[in-house]
Amino acid sequence: MTAVKADLCGCIDDLIREAPRSWLEALCTELKSWPADAQAEAMLHRVPPTYNANLSYTLRDALRLASGNMSWEALSCSISLCASLYQRWEGTNKNELLWAGPPPPGGMPARRIDQALYDMVGEAQREILLITFAAHKMKRLAEALTAASRRNVRIRLLLEFGVHSQNQLSHDALNAFPPDLQSTAEIFYWPLQNRELNQFGKPGKLHAKAAVVDGQALLLSANLTDDAFLRNLELGALFTGGDMPTRLRHHFEHLIANDTLVRWKP
């Protein structure tokens, strides 16, 4: 790919990511009407108006790069096709902000962390991977996980244990889950001998908080506790589709495969 083509592709990418869909449609319609020999600078007054300076600058660059290298109709079709593909990609690759605790004045355009997690577990069809440092007083989540297990959903829990953190965690996270779930779930932990120690002899903590459920990945600041879901100020991000769920699952599966993480047995 020549430098001009690469730069033009970059401009088109920037346009479809930043521009409103209606503006792009108006732009493509306008470009199709331009004479084949029209010069970009002479036609700028005919492009749809925008108050977005960055968008205007990017469009000027795209027109300059396309001039003499492709027809205006071809540029219109390229922008329209890329915008359509990007819109389809957005439909299957969604990122969502989640929260817990006091919202700012006027509310916050985000779902609560606990509700999103309950929805994910309640709709699970194939597998659930949960990673947490602490778990306590999570009766509703435990019930949802038990119900998922009865639907033959594979459940894996990666939990912190007090003895392996040298009591940096006062209660084993395992205790938050009922015995019948403990017997059906695959439970993993990080053995003390596999952890690095700090200068005071304290081991690292299994401090990650995440969930992978089928094609969704949830990254959290919150532990699986009633304090975290109901009283703390917490944030999370939910990824639906794309490669994030697979990448996160594979990361922990690799840690299991190389014995960094070990299967717990009662």
What does this structure look like?
The protein is of the alpha/beta class. The protein folds into 2 domains: 3-92, no CATH class; 94-263, Endonuclease, Chain A. The protein has 10 helices and 11 strands. It has a 9-stranded mixed β-sheet, sandwiched between helices. A two-stranded parallel sheet has the order 4-9. Helix 6 packs parallel to helix 7 (139-150). It is elongated, with a radius of gyration of 26 Å. It starts with a helix and ends with a strand. The mean pLDDT is 88.
Order of secondary-structure elements: HHHHHEEHEEHEHEEEEHEHE
Shape: elongated
User: How widely separated are the two ends?
Assistant: 59 Å
Number of strands: 11
Relative strand content: 15-25%
- What's the architecture of the largest domain, going by CATH? 2-Layer Sandwich
The assigned structural class equals alpha/beta
Radius of gyration: 26 Å
Q: What's the name of the CATH homologous superfamily of the largest domain?
A: Endonuclease Chain A
Number of contiguous helices? 10
What is the helix fraction of residues, given as a range?
Answer: 40-55%
The largest sheet has its strands arranged as 2-1-10-8-7-3-5-6-11
Q: What can be said about the biggest beta sheet?
A: 9 strands, mixed
- Here the CATH topology of the largest domain equals Endonuclease, Chain A
Total number of distinct structural domains: 2
Extract low-pLDDT stretches: none
CATH class of the largest domain reads: Alpha Beta
Summed over residues and divided by their number, the pLDDT gives a mean of 88
